[in-house]
Specification:
The complex is a heterodimer of chains A (187) and B (576). Chain A is of the alpha/beta class and 187 residues long. Chain A is 36% helix and 23% strand. Chain A has a 6-stranded mixed sheet with strand order 2-3-1-4-5-6, sandwiched between helices. In chain A, strand 4, helix 2 and strand 5 form a beta-alpha-beta unit. In chain A, helix 1 packs across helix 7, helix 5 packs across helix 6 and helix 6 packs across helix 8. The longest helix of chain A is centred in the first third of the chain and has 14 residues. The model of chain A has no long low-confidence stretch (mean pLDDT 94). Chain B is α/β, with parallel strands linked by helices. Classes of the chains: A alpha/beta (187), B alpha/beta (576). The interface between A and B is large, with 56 and 59 residues. Strand 2 of chain A pairs antiparallel with strand 8 of chain B, so a sheet runs across the interface.
């Protein structure tokens, strides 16, 4: 298998790190070489964040290059467009339709684009839009947005559901295994 | 056993397997997790020291006393530790001593982009640089062997992409290492001129020997001979980018980046037609190798700024024109103070009173951008205190009444205390604000001497900031609640107008500390809201405009109530 390139993007604090770690364990359990690159520290505080996940027979670089991502999972709508140039031509863009205003928008220095869905569709051939926050709320915990989105990602990767569940189980905090597994299967 | 580990975690594991018994550090991105993971091993004593200089001295004392010891810090932390570092090179060690430094090319979380390899050269200390987590683990063990074999501290240099990348590691058993016996030896450990002069000769001999031996360290400096048209000398994460795009090129991968293996490099250079150096940041390999008369291509086609990438190597070495799409032009998303952050209220009042501030390193640096625009400077740990004194001495007592210094609790202990002593000692009148959020926030919530707990989670005496400030001679020390803007305003007006130095401690815990606290989001009553935009001035990410109305994002709001205190119409109400 050639190396799979996945980006998970969003806003610091949304739980992108946990998502990438589930993917890391999933790839490891299935016998692949795997590398993840994460964002810690300052950028995490409400900034634009990205984690890179790469797995395959042999992985050198921990970074997905511009134009090479097979799938991008965007936790926030504007962040989807910000990182869209990383997607390869026939790559899949999974977008949580949640909107989080950045500070330049809050201060009135910039506007949050109103036509993001059209713009993202114009840039990416394969797009999937999900209101993961509402899904998570219906499940009773708005923090499980990340596993709702993982449920969609699973449809685009070749792993068994049992493998996914196992990866979730060993990665998330014990108390949240049940709700996260439920969220994963909710779509 | 194989598992997946963060680079920093692998460093910690390497220390454990190498039989380390003492680990010391001051937190700083991207190095912090090394020590957090080390603290998880019961066999290792681990501590947060107040700053990197102290950490380095504790580590040197421990190594001198016979224990395998590690000390960790970020690149700018090495500046703080530089004084003992340079002389540790002279004394050498007893038990092995490894200094982990994490550089930050691209400045993800730093105020500059300095290259720690210069320190290895300047202090005459050997340096290893791993290129993934598994090497981070194995190099750690190798570093201790070199340290003890050559009687020298050894650097391990990491960069953000090694520290904060996860990859697969092979775990092994812990080596049990006995303490080396301690013997008093003033010629070795008392670095007065009489003993330091002959030591300098020994240091030079040691480094010459290491430079010679480096060519035989084939486990660290590896040659992959393939197509001889192109040869590449590289190290660290750039090695991975090279392998990604040029799997058929011949590569000399330097695992020891100081001193360089001259013989090995000359030999490699003679076998390839064109030789490239791929190194992030400074041209350190390049300048040395060029000085030996070897023709190489380096910074002519590469940059000294920021991070490299596989695409960059494809373009610069292979000369490919990649059809890369440009990033969309979108409103930026800089990091911000979190919803519920206690620093926000302080900046709101400072702006209202038009007070300038010398700032410092920590979460409160995030208040520099609009709309809060709360600080005028940010340079280094403790600078928020001492620079304020400099402003006063340059422009006088009236001028400084419109200024304060901003520093956090951990940063104040790190190196703000001496600045405060300076203000008192040299008859300053300025006002320092300590934003005490009961943790080291920016690096991810580490304990510090003011929190009452240590790295191992044990209860310890709390450093009393009020008593400390009084003890250095500040007569006017007051504590305010940053969520009460009026109280902050009164305190600021009174203290800045005083003809005496003063300290205001704004005390409220970081919002992210208490995970169990019940947080009830607020909402804007659209009937009473007059859209005056006062609430927008506090720069809270949870307060947004939508279709002409001001709304509160209930997925972000934590109900800190600061906005209710700035709304003149009482339009912000408690939710259910």
């Amino acid at each position: 298998m050639s190396v799979k390139n996945i980006l998970v993007v969003g806003v610091g604090g949304q739980g992108t790190l946990l998502t990438s770690r589930i993917l890391g364990n999933l790839a490891l359990n299935n016998g692949y070489d795997v590398k993840l690159s994460e964002v810690h520290g300052m950028a995490q505080r409400g900034g634009s964040v990205v984690t890179h996940i790469r797995f395959g027979e042999k992985v050198y670089s921990p970074l997905v290059e511009i134009g090479h991502a097979d799938v991008i999972v965007a936790f926030e709508k504007m962040e989807a467009l910000r990182w869209a140039h990383y997607l390869k031509k026939d790559g899949v863009m999974i977008v949580n339709t949640q909107e989080i205003n950045p500070m330049p928008v809050i201060t009135g220095g910039a506007e949050y684009p109103s036509d993001l869905v059209e713009q993202i569709k114009g840039k990416c051939d394969k797009t999937i839009f999900i209101d993961a926050l509402s899904h998570a709320r219906e499940l009773g915990n708005f923090r499980v947005v990340n596993t709702v989105l993982l449920g969609e990602l699973a449809k685009h990767l070749d792993f068994d559901v049992e493998q996914w569940e196992k990866a979730i189980e060993i990665t998330v905090p014990k108390k949240t295994i049940e709700i996260n597994t439920k969220a994963f299967k909710s779509l | 056993m194989k598992t997946i580990m963060l680079g920093n975690q692998a460093i910690a594991r390497g220390a454990y397997e190498a039989g380390v018994t003492v680990a010391v550090a001051y937190p700083g991105t991207p190095s912090t997790e090394i020590t957090e993971f080390v603290a998880g091993y019961d066999d290792i004593y681990a501590e947060w020291s107040p700053n990197e200089k102290v950490a380095m001295e504790v580590a040197l004392g421990s190594a001198m006393a016979g224990a395998r010891t590690m000390v960790s810090m970020k690149h700018v932390g090495v500046n703080v530790a530089a004084d003992p570092l340079f002389t540790a090179s002279y004394t050498g060690i007893n038990g092995g001593l490894v200094i982990c430094t994490a550089d930050d090319p691209g400045m993800h979380s730093s105020q500059n982009e300095q290259d720690s390899r210069y320190y290895a050269r300047a202090a005459h200390i050997p340096m290893l640089e791993p290129a993934d987590s598994n090497e981070a683990l194995s190099y750690m063990k190798r570093a201790f062997d070199i340290s003890e074999a050559y009687d020298t501290p050894v650097f391990i240099r990491l960069t953000t992409r090694i520290s904060h990348s996860q990859s697969i590691v092979q775990l092994n058993e812990r080596e049990v290492v006995e303490l080396k016996p301690y013997e008093k030896n003033i010629e070795k450990n008392v670095m007065m001129p009489l003993y330091a002069r002959p030591k300098h000769i020994i240091v030079e001999k040691r480094m010459n020997q290491l430079a010679e031996d480096a060519s035989t360290f084939t486990d660290l400096n590896t040659v992959e001979m393939k197509d001889t048209k192109v040869g590449i000398i590289t190290s660290g994460v750039p090695y991975q980018y090279v392998k990604e795009v040029m799997p058929d090129a011949s590569v000399l991968k330097l695992g020891m980046v100081h001193p360089l293996p001259k013989k090995l490099i000359e030999d490699f250079a003679s076998k390839v037609d064109r030789l490239y150096i791929v190194e992030e940041l400074e041209p350190i390999f390049e300048e040395q190798i060029k000085a030996w008369g070897i023709k190489v291509i380096g910074k002519e086609i590469f940059t000294v700024q920021g991070e490299y990438s596989a695409n960059m190597i494809e373009e610069r070495i292979l000369g490919k024109e990649l059809e890369l799409r440009d990033a969309e032009k979108l409103p930026g998303r800089p990091p911000v103070l979190c919803p519920g952050c206690p620093h926000r209220g302080i900046y709101y009042v400072l702006k209202k009173l038009k007070i300038h501030a010398t700032g410092d390193i920590g979460c409160y640096t995030l208040g520099a951008l609009p709309p809060l625009e709360g600080i005028d400077t940010c340079v280094c740990m403790g600078g928020g205190v001492s620079m304020l004194h400099g402003v006063e001495k340059a422009r006088g007592k009236e001028f400084i009444k419109k200024w304060v210094g901003i520093v956090g609790d951990s940063t104040f202990v790190h190196s703000g205390i001496t600045g405060l002593v300076d203000i008192v000692y040299n008859k300053g009148i300025s006002t320092v604000m300590i934003l005490d959020n009961s943790t080291t926030g920016m690096t991810g919530h580490q304990e510090n001497p003011t929190t009452g707990r240590n790295l191992k989670g044990e209860e310890v005496p709390v450093l009393n900031l009020v008593a400390l400030c009084k003890a250095v001679g500040i007569h006017h020390v007051r504590v305010v609640n940053p969520f009460k803007p009026k109280e902050v305003e009164v305190a600021l007006k009174e203290e800045t107008n005083r003809e005496e130095p003063s300290v205001i401690i704004a005390s409220a815990p970081c919002e992210l500390l208490d995970k169990k606290k019940k947080r009830i989001p607020l909402y804007v009553n659209q009937e009473t809201c007059r859209k005056c935009n006062m609430c927008m001035k506090i720069g809270c990410p949870a307060i947004q405009k939508k279709d002409g109305n001001i709304i509160i994002n209930d997925a972000l709001c934590v109900g800190c109530n600061l906005c209710t205190k700035v709304c003149p119409f009482g339009a912000i109400e408690k939710g259910e």
